[in-house]
Design goal:
single chain; alpha+beta; Tetrahydropterin Synthase, Chain A; three-stranded antiparallel β-sheet; 3 strands; 16% strand
Length: 171
């Protein structure tokens, strides 16, 4: 009788344990492995799309034109630009003549059209500077660069090549 019980118990125990272990392994792979692979694919896609730079398409219409720096450009003068420098509380003023140099022929018409906007951009740069920032050769070089950038943000048909300050008088 004892033999019968042992024989009956053995086949019953072995069959369910094999099925459970095989099914559990497949379930574990599906429940853990697949989501991990999906997360890794998402991270890879994010990294590739955020760090990869798209290539710029070459167009026939826009070719960079190299300027001849030895050739003098066209000059446009803004005379009597009068401002109160920052920190003076109106006790001092600056009277400046500002000359723009450019080479694009169509830019002269745009500068004439946008005279008020350009003058405003020039005044905004100068008003933000103190007397110490306006005085001296290093200060003037930095101001010329800022004035050029301010003008180039307003202009669309071309760019200002240089800024000249023939008259720059403090009072």
């Amino acid at each position: 009788m004892a033999k019968k019980k042992q024989e009956e118990e053995k086949p019953v125990e072995e069959t369910p344990s094999k099925e459970k272990s095989g099914g559990n392994t497949l379930k574990m792979i599906l429940m853990i492995g697949v989501p991990i692979m999906l997360i890794q694919a998402g991270i890879a896609w994010f990294l590739i799309s955020s760090f990869a730079q798209p290539t710029k398409a070459v167009s026939d219409t826009e070719e960079p034109v190299e300027e001849d720096v030895t050739k003098p450009g066209t000059l446009y003068e803004f005379s009597d630009v009068i401002i109160n420098p920052a920190g003076t509380a109106g006790s001092r003023f600056l009277n400046a003549n500002i000359v723009l140099e450019f080479t694009a022929p169509e830019l002269e018409a745009e500068i004439s059209e946008k005279n008020v906007q350009l003058r405003d951009a020039l005044v905004n740069v100068l008003v933000s500077k103190t007397i110490l920032e306006l005085d001296g050769s290093q200060g003037r070089a930095a101001i010329k660069e800022e004035l050029k950038e301010a003008c180039n943000t307003v202009l669309k048909k071309g760019k200002v090549r240089a800024i000249y300050l023939p008259s720059f008088i403090f009072q």
